[in-house]
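Record type: monomer structure entry
Structure origin: computed from sequence
Chain ID: A
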Amino acid sequence: MYLGPFYFDTKELFLILAAILIAVAMFFGWSLWWFDKRALLTLVILILLTKGLLPAIHNEAFFILAVVSVFLTLYLPIFQVVLFYFISFLFFRLFKVI
């Protein structure tokens, strides 16, 4: 489904649902055991934007990048995680991995 310049598939619908659930958890003050809710919401929105803008990327390598980025939010500040995400994404695109 195209919505402007974005293409949404079933995987992107899962990311939209995750973003909505994290926003609801932030609104009601529910705890997400070890994770920072704002960092997760920021990362989910960045993943959704990059996945929506580039529909032809390979899902396996992108999934590994997303999972590693999510688990890095346990240990690193969000700026470093976002920097890691964009640099890794750039190198993956440069080396034609995704």
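Annotation 1: The helical segments are 10-28, 37-53, 59-72, 78-94.
Annotation 2: The mean pLDDT is 86.
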